[in-house]
Write a structure and sequence with these properties.
With about 300 residues, the protein is mainly β. It has helices at about 70-75, 285-300; strands spanning about 25, 30, 35-40, 45-55, 65, 80-85, 100-110, 115-120, 135, 140-145, 160-170, 175-185, 195-200, 200-205, 210-215, 220-225, 240-250, 265, 270-275. Strand 4 (about 45-55) and strand 5 (about 65) form a beta hairpin.
């Protein structure tokens, strides 16, 4: 199920009552309504594609699924160094239709601090634009479809769109190789084309694809995306977009089997903890009224 990026965002300012005790990603946590999940990249980088899973039983047992809040807030965590996930809405709508009692960060990466990130679907990269040129980086870098990925991307105009991100090749780059690994890809295979161009064009069609481009001269390296409307909503696609990792290497470097994304991401750096919100204070007037309030808080927790 894909959900278009919400047009209205409600920001809740929450105060924490206890300092977090960080745990490695992959651990399971039982929680109550007063808890929130706090995630952060310990290397100062950015969170990417955390997958939050809820369980009907304690200690991540029973059936598993996701609530709308887990899905939405998990998506919103991407590209931030740290984020907070409200766990008060516990009803799951995928997997099984019951309340969550425990939660797990099943997947997620931390992009290394300082990694360059480029967006392909922007007004500046449209075919009619005279901007969108960048020097080809010497270190590994990321190209994503748009700033709000993994939310579905928006169309910049009606009809077909052509976007190009152009990288300037330096004299010292000639006779080197550009490695490309596709981390995530969700486009309309019938209407959309994602490609990389330098002397020849190569289409990128599946997540996990890895290709290499031999840099032969000073021609631009071009990442392109051709798209046409694939949804009955005029400005929002039904697909989410893509993320890929690229790195320039020497031509005689040993052929690698691992993804380029391993050079810019680390799973172990993503940490999380449960933290408590400041409890709502019960009114001070009336002993019986205060006792009832405290009893309700205890029941909710």
């Amino acid at each position: 199920m894909r959900i278009p990026y919400p047009q209205t965002v409600l920001v809740l300012l929450l105060l924490w009552s206890v300092p977090p005790s960080w745990e490695k990603n992959g651990s399971c946590r039982n929680f109550r309504r007063r808890h929130m999940l706090k995630m952060a990249c310990s290397n100062g980088g950015k969170i990417l594609l955390p997958k939050l899973m809820g369980f009907s039983g304690k200690d991540c047992t029973g059936c598993l699924g996701q609530s709308p809040a887990l899905l939405v807030q998990g998506n919103d965590c991407s590209w931030n160094n740290r984020c907070k996930v409200d766990l008060s809405a516990r009803r799951m709508v995928t997997g099984c239709y019951t309340n969550m009692k425990s939660v797990e960060v099943a997947e997620g990466q931390c992009i290394h601090n300082g990694t360059r990130i480029y967006d392909l679907i922007t007004k500046k990269t449209q075919s009619s634009s005279s901007v969108g040129y960048h020097q080809l980086p010497r270190d590994a870098f990321l190209v994503r479809s748009h700033r709000k990925f993994p939310w579905n991307y928006s169309y910049k105009k009606l009809g077909s769109e052509w976007h190009q991100l152009r990288f300037i090749v330096g004299q010292e780059d000639i006779n080197r190789r550009l490695l490309v690994s596709v981390l995530s890809l969700d486009i309309d295979s019938r209407r959309d084309t994602l490609y990389i161009l330098h002397k020849q064009s190569l289409n990128l069609t599946r997540p996990g694809d890895s290709v290499q481009i031999n840099i032969e001269d000073l021609s631009y390296v071009v990442l392109g995306f051709n798209s046409s409307i694939n949804h009955h909503y005029p400005n929002i696609a039904k697909t989410r977009g893509f993320v890929m990792c690229l790195k320039l290497v020497d031509k005689d470097e040993q052929q690698r089997t691992k993804s380029v994304c391993d050079d810019v991401m680390n799973h172990e750096k993503l940490k999380f903890s449960l933290v408590k919100r400041n409890p709502q204070k019960c009114p001070g007037k009336g002993k019986r009224r205060k006792q009832k309030c405290n009893a309700r808080k205890l029941k909710k927790g």
